[in-house]
């Protein structure tokens, strides 16, 4: 019997985010019903993120990676084009529910020949919480625009639930991946086997719980990130009323006891957390500085108007000495549930079909 073709059998692996990108995929905040009076400010925060990623030189030319922006219709296409034209952003007319491209776009992989492929997983609105028209079709449509080979999986998976080191190690959480609202009845060993097939993962490292009021059920990209193989960054509690103090300390302890696929004991770096961040109604928000995006020439750190913003950006800058590290406002985007890593999905450099 012929073996099923999988990314791993085709020699593919999921690259680390610091490896070169051909593009980053984003989506323009567009839906009044979702953003209401905050739509304009959400768009301004996306513009700030795009400016940092484009990284204009002294003559106003982008030297960062190309940005591909999803727009749902002609009106938003014109709006986004006018706002982002100076950054070289190209728009793609693809319907979507909301802007969380980390979770609804494909997860790209690459083989040793430099060929890029797209892994398209099932999407169920973060366990049925937010079912929005178009979101479940974005991955296939982006892959078509990208011109890559496609591998389709029936398993439910959001890109923000996994964090690769590019060398066969994946970080994830039990709160999300073993949650019955994603893949009911799927055992941890089965999930690890799927990760091996799709991403070339040789070791999966499991954390437990995520941040308070995180509707993603503990996505890893708000908790811990690789900054290089064998080295991870997570947060330390800030202030006397940090709502995630116990969780953040547990994450650091667990990471310090782990070894990666190469047998290295993880080196754990801690940066300040934003502390207590509340929305306009006084509710605690799942704010995280590790939800940064690693672009080709820059690292863009979300900030929230917290007294710890500057210290966090400075601490992250020390971890990426070869890139420009900048903080950009993201509190309005956070009202929708995420920050900069959540609204981006990188396409690694490589050959396409």
Main attributes of the structure:
L-arginine/glycine Amidinotransferase, Chain A, 353 residues, globular, alpha/beta, 11 helices, four-stranded mixed beta sheet
Provide a descriptive summary of the structure in words.
Helix content is 26%, strand content 24%. By secondary structure, the chain is of the alpha/beta class. The longest helix has 16 residues, at 39-54. It contains eleven helices and 17 strands. The protein has a single domain, classed as L-arginine/glycine Amidinotransferase, Chain A.
What are the low-pLDDT stretches, counting only 5+ consecutive residues below 50?
A: none
Tally of helical runs: 11
Please give the CATH class.
Alpha Beta
Instruction: Give the SSE order as H and E letters.
Output: EEHHEHEHEEHHEEEHHEEEHEEEHEHE
Strand content: 15-25%
- Provide the helix percentage: 25-40%
| Spatial sequence of strands, sheet with the most strands | 1-5-6-7
Number of strands: 17
CATH superfamily: L-arginine/glycine Amidinotransferase, Chain A
Radius of gyration: 19 Å
């Amino acid at each position: 019997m012929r073996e099923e073709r999988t990314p791993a059998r085709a020699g593919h692996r999921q690259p680390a985010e610091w490896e070169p990108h051909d593009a980053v995929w984003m989506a323009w905040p567009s839906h009044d019903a979702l953003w209401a009076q905050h739509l304009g400010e959400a768009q301004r925060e996306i513009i700030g993120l795009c400016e940092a990623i484009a990284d204009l030189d002294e003559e106003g030319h982008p030297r960062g990676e190309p940005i591909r922006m999803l727009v749902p219709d002609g009106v938003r296409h014109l709006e986004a084009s006018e706002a982002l034209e100076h950054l070289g952003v190209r728009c793609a007319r693809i319907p979507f529910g909301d802007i969380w491209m980390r979770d609804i776009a494909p997860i790209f992989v690459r083989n040793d020949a430099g060929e890029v492929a797209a892994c398209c997983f099932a999407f169920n609105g973060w366990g049925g919480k937010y079912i929005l028209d178009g979101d479940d079709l974005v991955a296939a449509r982006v892959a078509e625009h990208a011109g890559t080979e496609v591998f389709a999986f029936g398993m439910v998976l959001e890109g923000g639930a996994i964090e690769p080191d590019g060398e066969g190690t994946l970080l994830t959480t039990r709160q999300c991946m073993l949650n019955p609202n994603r893949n009911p009845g799927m055992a941890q060993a089965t999930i690890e086997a799927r990760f091996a097939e799709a991403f070339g993962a040789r070791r999966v490292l499991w954390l437990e719980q995520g941040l308070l009021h995180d509707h993603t059920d503990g996505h890893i990209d708000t908790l811990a990130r690789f900054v290089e193989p064998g080295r991870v960054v997570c947060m330390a509690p800030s202030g006397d009323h940090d709502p995630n103090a116990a969780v953040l300390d547990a994450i650091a302890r667990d990471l310090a006891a782990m070894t990666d696929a190469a047998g290295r004991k993880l080196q754990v770096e801690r940066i300040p957390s934003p502390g207590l961040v509340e929305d306009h109604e006084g509710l605690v928000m799942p704010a995280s500085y590790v939800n940064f995006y690693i672009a080709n020439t820059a690292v863009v750190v979300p900030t929230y108007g917290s007294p710890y913003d500057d210290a966090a950006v400075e601490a992250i800058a020390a971890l990426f000495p070869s890139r420009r590290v900048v903080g950009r406002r993201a509190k309005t985007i956070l009202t929708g549930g995420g920050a900069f890593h959540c609204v981006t999905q990188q396409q690694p450099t490589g050959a396409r079909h």
